[in-house]
Design brief:
The chain is 21% helix and 36% strand. With 222 residues, the protein is of the alpha+beta class. The two termini are 15 Å apart.
Length: 222
């Protein structure tokens, strides 16, 4: 996939049509739902990136999200990705279309309507306007959409926005025992370091003795 730019449509894996934009307060309920699904699990799904069994309590609450949204957008930016579903209406009857389907004109009256579903989100933050490092966090994908390329698309979006800030190094803080997730980040160019941080997250209770490990990526490297 080529560069991912905020506010544009993207054709993702298997032809899925996607759109990226900033999160706003109207998105609160859905973003909180997706983040908690991604980190704590969603009934009927078996996501490979969940923290279920390691941490209990909500990953995020509406109040926590609103606090982030009220932060200076030059220091923190929250973004989401939507799945665009097109519905073709012919003489009053609706039929769902795949993103790559071409609608042809017939003698019947027909139109195409778009429905957008929020399927993932991510945020970036830095300490000051002069910072050359930024942390990518809150990476979340609706478990029903995992393994559809949404996560890697969100990472590309976050890296692009970091670059637009003038940031040269992206950081990730990952629970050290999430080996599958760390390997996935490694494949995206992130290097696992020896730096660790204590697990101190508001409203969450660790079920095991866990900590964060720092992963870094030089955004100037090709």
């Amino acid at each position: 996939m080529s560069e991912v730019i905020l506010g544009t449509e993207i054709i993702g894996k298997n032809g899925i049509k996607l759109f990226t934009r900033l999160i706003d307060f109207n998105d609160t309920d859905k973003i909180v739902e997706i983040v908690n699904w991604a980190y704590r699990g969603k009934e009927g799904t078996f996501p490979w990136a969940t923290e279920k069994g390691l941490v209990t309590g909500p990953r995020i609450t509406p109040e926590m999200l609103h606090s982030d949204l009220n932060t200076d957008s030059k220091l923190m930016k929250l973004m989401l990705i939507e799945h665009i579903i097109e519905e073709k209406t012919i003489d009053g009857a609706s039929e769902a279309l795949e993103a790559t389907t071409t609608t042809t004109t017939t003698a019947n009256t027909q139109s195409v309507n778009q429905k957008r579903l929020i399927v993932g989100c991510v945020k970036i933050e830095r300490e000051s306007l002069e910072s050359k490092e930024a942390v990518i966090g809150m990476l979340s994908v609706d478990p029903s959409y995992q393994s559809s390329g949404i996560g890697s698309t969100l990472i590309k979006l976050a890296e692009k926005e970091c670059g637009d800030w003038g940031v040269t190094e992206a950081h990730l803080h990952v629970v050290h025992v999430r080996h599958t997730l760390i390997n996935w980040y490694n494949k995206l160019g992130y290097i696992t370091t020896e730096t660790t941080f204590p697990f101190e997250v508001e409203r969450n209770v660790a079920l095991e003795n866990i900590h964060f490990v720092l992963l870094v990526k030089n955004l100037l490297s090709k």
